[in-house]
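Hey everyone, long-time lurker, first post.

I ran two proteins through the pipeline my lab uses and got sequence/structure pairs for each. Pasting them in order. The first:
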Amino acid sequence: MLSVAEASERILAEVKALPPETLPLRQALGRVLAEDVTATVTMPPWSNSSMDGYAVRSADITPVMSGEPVKLRVIATIAAGEFAPRALKRGEAMRIMTGAPIPGGADSVIRKEDTDGGSEKVEIREARDVWKNIRGAGEDYQSGDLLAKRGAPVKPALLGVLASSGIATVQVFGRPRVAIISSGNELVDIDDFDEVIAARRIVSTNSYTLEALTRVSGGIPEDLGIASDTRASLKKKLESAAGYDLILTSAGVSVGDLDHTRDVFARLGGKQKFWKVKMRPGAPLAFGLLNGVPWLGLSGNPVSAMVSFELFVRPALRKMQGHTNLFHRALTVTVEEEIKIAAKLTHFLRAFVTRREDGTLTARLTGHQSSGALTSMVKANALLIVPGTHQKVAKGGQLHALMLDHSLEETSAFSL
């Protein structure tokens, strides 16, 4: 039986980034660059004003530094997108708008509120902006500069930078197509909910949670439906997964009389790399390759499937997409209650992490830790990691928590 770290390492060793594809820039948000991108121009192409005001020569406003106002002749107005008719001469100023090119000879932009706002002549009353409010040519980047490296996620700011350099298309790593198969005679889709009402069946929640987790991880999920607990049904489903980048099954990988998934996988030529991990929930995890395509067989228990996804499937999907940061962030937290585990396995307990006013993080369990209690997963923003060597952790003790979302970074009010 492998440790969690060993299992993760073996899975990722078999997973490769998908071939790149070329996309229009607007469609590349959230993808990962498959190439270095360099600037085609210098930006900004000319020095420009960062303020509405007056472009002046510092030599003309020296008296203002001693408290004596100076009047200058206004010879032009420069709006953004326009250029000055000529360079400034002694005793002259030009009205200028934010983003407009700086006229030759000017080395300062005095903001409008430090003047009388004159249109033919302007009185400069304050010199706090001498040699200021000018953004130099090439301040952002120079032609030929590296704008982004291969492996960089395409975020909104990067989209803007690439657009500013006229880069209309980019090469990005592909998105993995994921075949999702649930199995179990007791399962139905939500369309057959009458069976649930009659207490004969239960909804295949894994079909929904695994599809959603795949989607938020950047993959393209396709639910291939529910297989019954027969070798023939499982064989048909696995054969229909040909051509996908990852095969994800839930249930059927343990040692029960009807757990046929691993056997059918092997009969189809699949090469199982390992089975079972020293963890709870989710110990009966299987991994292998079917015709070169990675396969992950998760437990059928709803929480087990979700926990295994976060630990093993999500990192694999991120690697396929070219990401280098593959794992959720782990933070040190103080537990608000005594924690006990029965088995000497690494436990991943559903928890809610809160930040106190002093900045410390605390964690409390979200309820029943049964692998079938999906509601406790709804309330969790983290998985509390309890090593098998720590079968009892006292209240106030410290553990690591694997953060599942960004709730700690969000607030209902804005403050600085």
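...and the second, right after it:
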Amino acid sequence: MRLKVVVTRPLPAPVEAKMRALFDVELNADGAAFDRERLASAMQRCDALASNVGDRLDAGLIAGVGDRLRLIANFGVGTDNIDLAAARRRGIAVTNTPDVLTQDTADIVMALILITLRRLGEGERLLRDGRWGGWKPTDFLGRSLAGKTLGIVGMGRIGQAVARRAAAFGMDVHYHNRKPAAGHPARYWADLDAMIEIADVVSVNAPYGAETHHLVDGRRLARMKRDAVLINAARGAIVDEEALVAALAEGRIAGAGLDVYPHEPHVDPRLVAMEQVVLLPHMGSATVETRTAMGMKVVENILAFADGRELPDQVV
């Protein structure tokens, strides 16, 4: 008997085709996000749930799943959408999709740095609105990347990939991490506050958890240079959004480039109204190659579970 799998969002066509071949799979035909009731129903009737980072699987949902569900195969590196302790108590394994989105996410970080420092979003909006009156020597004066100090918060795979790209642009790369990254030429700072004070660009690339919730808060934003910008393509809740809005509104920092938000898909309308803020809809891993590779990792984890093998990407 084939494993019953419910998939909560449409996945790239090759991934869905492979799932059809291997499992008794229920795909998301309408494309709509699962609400709480739909998630609860799916978790009652499947052996494995192929969830995604937009599905909030809290302790209440997990406590009521019954005895059938034994695997949550999450489409995404982060698992902060899942109450891992509750899954552990119920004996439900949780997997993720690491290692395949590093390069594309690092590209998005560099794109945000470029767009924010060079004011490309402002220029693009003005031209599309039909308000461009021709080239002027003093229009849209952004700042060069070369020679600027980049402070990376979190020097894991993505942070290191960002560091390599930034160095190629001529940036002076510094980083804060729990410990130094072996063999990396960038300057290590044990003191995050001290690094933030000297950075022209602060890029958040740390994983999200209890220790990093609001890691960049009002106190740390106040330590940034007034002409510095904040980049976040990690998780929205690592940055205190209310403090960020205040810092931007009061001109205490020069701008921000964001790909993630604490209450997705909601984006604070005050951020939307700010010209000095670049906003992307969580596009860090959004390439055909990476999203397909992520989906194939989901398949491999479910297949390993079905075969009774060790799960390649087990978190719990």
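Reply from user beta_strand_b:
Welcome! Quick read of the second one: The chain has a mean pLDDT of 97. The longest helix spans residues 288-307.
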